[in-house]
TrEMBL record, chains A, B:
One Pfam family matching this protein: TetR_N
Domain HTH tetR-type: start-end pairs: 26-84
InterPro entries for the chain: Homeodomain-like_sf, HTH-type_TetR-like_transc_reg, HTH_TetR, Tet_transcr_reg_TetR-rel_C_sf
Keywords tagged on the record: DNA-binding, Transcription, Transcription regulation
Keyword DNA-binding: yes
Organism, as annotated: Kitasatospora aburaviensis
Upper lineage: Bacteria, Bacillati, Actinomycetota, Actinomycetes, Kitasatosporales
Name the UniProt record assigns to this protein: TetR/AcrR family transcriptional regulator
Sequence segments annotated as region (Disordered): 1-23
Residue ranges flagged as DNA-binding region: 47-66
Keyword Transcription regulation assigned: yes
Length: 205, 205
DNA sequence: CTTAACTCAAACAGAGTTGTTCAACTTATC
DNA sequence: GATAAGTTGAACAACTCTGTTTGAGTTAAG
């Protein structure tokens, strides 16, 4: 029941990170994370058994590194979203015209998102709502800040609440990812469509 | 394994609708459908036991009317989507300016969608992809027809593929529903925001 | 009021899951 | 090459879910 949000590391039961991990352990953890991302993308209900097999690792080893299914999903979500957050920071949230900044951000984080959208979807529905919110809060609040600035500058519409604009962005990114998944768009086409649609959806009328 | 798409009726094993159903059976079926909608909205993984309890019937009775969990979900989706399809037809797909028609359609089907979005989400993920597609095909193709006409008339943008515009509508409706669910919008606010956002997202640039 | 339709609780079989323990084996690392 | 860290399959307990059967009880409908 207690949230073990010792984020960033894959320490299952050790309270303190203890010392360095052995090289093969490190390798296995990487393999598990990759396999899990791919498994959850294919099937949101993927079992620990499937994931261990896909990672080429015994089930016991999997539990050795991630104490529960939930811990694994939480770690996956944490990593994916913090990658995006890093890109967000690197974009320079508070500089340049807000609409240009958003555009740049979307473009530079698209590959990341495209790769992880389905896994994130799985995590979102298997994790308690509160945990999901915690993981998102960084990105969402940064987006909110960017959009709010854009409204003040006149680049974005202010006839609708900022939170709605944020979730518009969120929803359209999802939709673009789904189209790629369904084979109706290539990744590049999806990005272009997303870009064009966001531009007109957010611009002041 | 065989798809029993004898849609519209809740006949579990009877091949032919045989004769009328008894009044109490009819009543229970209605209670089950209502309870299931509400249960799946709260928890996409709701079990048959939960649903039977919520409907105030025995589990055996539930299985008596719906031969499997899948059959129940399929019936729910069928009913919800055909309600929407009915509204779509009633809107007069091929008359008047396409943007006005879309607007009218969204407005008149919003309550229906708002009520059922979460249940539909649950059904969508529990049913085989093919079945989901079959249920949607009516609405999606009608939407596609409307949007294609709108593009020819110059009301909607034609710099992006029609299927993308359709899924933009779909995604934003979802997002609006989620905002209501999250308590950040009332149903009316969400509808207004949806309306305004769709207008600018679909208009030609 | 009689019959056929319907309901129900309890109990069952079967399949899947999660997470743990054990005892032997392999591999990094110093 | 010794030792500690890491891995492994097998087996286990506990649980949840699905779908079915049974036999007795209830209720609508003619």
């Amino acid at each position: 029941m207690e949230s073990e949000h010792r984020s960033g590391a894959a320490n299952a039961r050790r309270g303190t990170p203890t010392h360095p991990r052995r090289a093969d352990a490190e390798r296995n953890i990487a393999a598990i994370l990759a396999a899990a991302t791919s498994c959850f993308a294919k099937n949101p209900n993927a079992s620990m058994t499937e994931i261990a097999a896909a990672a080429g690792v015994g089930r016991v080893t999997l539990y050795g590194h991630f104490s529960s299914r939930e811990a694994l999903l939480s770690e996956l979500m944490e990593r994916a979203l913090s990658e995006v957050a890093t890109v967000l920071e690197a974009t320079g949230l508070d500089e340049g015209p807000a609409d240009e900044t958003l555009r740049t951000f979307i473009r530079s984080s698209w590959q990341l998102l495209d790769r992880n959208l389905r896994m994130l979807h799985a995590a979102r529905r298997a994790l308690p709502a509160e945990a999901v919110h915690d993981h998102h809060v960084g990105i969402l609040s940064a987006m909110d800040r960017l959009i709010t600035r854009g409204r003040q500058e006149g680049a974005f519409r202010d006839d609708l609440p900022a939170h709605w604009l944020v979730s518009t962005v969120y929803a359209l990114v999802q939709a673009a990812g789904d189209q790629v998944e369904a084979g109706r768009f290539t990744s590049e086409e999806a990005l272009d469509a997303l870009d064009a649609t966001l531009a007109s959806a957010l611009r002041r009328p």
